[in-house]
Amino acid sequence: MTILVSTAYLDEAERCTRIGLMHQGRILIEDEPKKIRSSLDLPMIEVWSDNARSAQDYLRTLSGIHSVSLYGDRLHIAVEKKMGASEIVAQLKRGGFEVKDYRDVLPSLEDVFISMVER
Q: Do 76 and 108 touch, CB atoms closer than 8 A?
């Protein structure tokens, strides 16, 4: 049995077996959610900060940062392969930002979609 679901909420799409991401009437990619999340091929770091919005603006000015997305008090930072989480945290601290915690994460479907649309 096949059930077709259309949603703009990518966290809902995460629960499906196969998904297709569409933009302006074109399917950009179609596969299992985990494979799509792995397709970004850029390291992703999640950082918690009290001042995430300002930290996002600051990070966008640095070289080696591919993209920065805001999720409440968390940032998803796609970086060039040569940059590590400790380097990002050090940059934020030099910029005067407190980092509560950080970790390497698999990009979200939203991270992948935004990256594909920006291309």
A: yes
